[in-house]
Amino acid sequence: MSTGDNRTYPSAGAAALALAGVLLALGLWARGAEGQDLQSQLDSKRAQLGSEQEREGVLSTELSRYNDRLDQLAGEVAVLRNREAIVQAELDRVKAQLRREKDRLEQLKHQLSRSLNVLRRRLVSIYRSDSPDVLTVMLEADGFDDLVSRYEYLRRIEEQDADIVGRVRGLRNESRDTVERIEAARDEIAARKAELVRTRTQLEAREAELDAVRDRKASALDEVHSEIERLEGDISDIQGKIQAQIQAASSTSAAPLPAGPIQGGSGGWIWPVNGSVTSPYGPRWGRMHEGIDISAPAGTPIRAANSGQVILAAPTSGYGNYTCIDHGGGLSSCYAHQSSYATSVGASVSQGDVIGYVGCTGSCFGDHLHFEIRVNGSAVDPLGYL
To answer: Domain ends where: 231, 254, 277?
Structure first.
């Protein structure tokens, strides 16, 4: 019986298939959103790590500079201590000489005092005695020769007494002058020592100040090292989560993805996969990114960008599963992070042949193809060939 409605309705099986497709798409979208969140965390941690590593370099340089300055100050302090020891020995010698000269001065003073007392007593004794005076002695001389002899004898006694007093007095003055010179030398040496001590004290204070600053810098550097270790651990954990998601998504994949249409380049090469460039060639995170990252789902077939011979197909450091093709003339192309290989070393491939599948092996943060072109082994920008 006709209802007058010419529209066709999908069967129950087709509706179920469509619903499954929607659910699958939602699941993939959810995984993608979660993966994108992990990628944001990873980028943030890497940025923090780069900042901490830069701070580590600055602190290490400053710490080395402080150590050099402290070594220099320690050497200067050692030199000053040696000079202090020399000056102290010189000061001790001068002090000992000064003590000897002062002792000698005291002895001379005593000698002078005794001589003056003896002379004074003699004069008093002569004055008080009943002995004839000089004139009487001279008048009682027996002849001219005896007179001369008596005069000469008296004169010598007088000169001897005067000479004794003069010598003692001269020695006293000389000793006093010597003492004054030694005292002046002692004061000068003491002043030199005091200046050395002041200079050394200032240097030691500066040394203590720099030592305290160096200790603070070393403590800060230890904290940076701890922070770097923590960030590296966080990055490793996030990468593990991303890898686990990738493996989970790969395990639930129902069938390999199709190779897709070939996308030609402007230089006779083709794009190895169809997708957008998520990271270009050039400096990245403080190092050189020697290729381009092309976004593609896990399992997407990778085509040879040009014809050639496979010269490498093996896990290689951070590249993960890595394939390189020699195209002759010094040109080669390389494909990193593959989930698996579709060729082997020594095989000849034509442009467009599938050589592997997109994945996230090695150091990566999500499914993509890292693509390189090298000239005589040196990486160049692949966009100049695509």
So the answer is: 254
Q: Which domain holds residue 62?
A: 12-254
Q: What is the largest CA-CA distance in the chain?
A: 202
- The DSSP-derived string for 132-194 is --HHHHHHT-SHHHHHHHHHHHHHHHHHHHHHHHHHHHHHHHHHHHHHHHHHHHHHHHHHHHH
- Share of residues in the chain with pLDDT > 90 (%): 19
- 296 and 195 both lie in a single domain: no
Q: One-letter amino acid identity for 25?
A: A
Structure tokens at 310: 């496979």
Residue 130 phi/psi, 5-degree rounding, is: -85, 5
Give me the amino acid identity at 205: A
**pLDDT value for 84:** 83
Q: Say if residue 120's pLDDT is above 80.
A: no
Residue 265 CB-density burial (10 A; 0-12 exposed, 13-18 middle, 19+ buried):
middle
* Number of domains forming the structure of the chain: 2
Q: Within a domain: residue 18?
A: yes
pLDDT of the residue at 345: 92
| Cα 379 from Cα 280, distance rounded (Å) | 13
Secondary structure letter of residue 283 according to DSSP: E
Alpha-carbon torsion (7, 11, 17, 22), positive or negative: positive
pLDDT digits (tens, 9 = 90+) for 140-170: 666 666 666 766 766 777 677 677 777 777 7
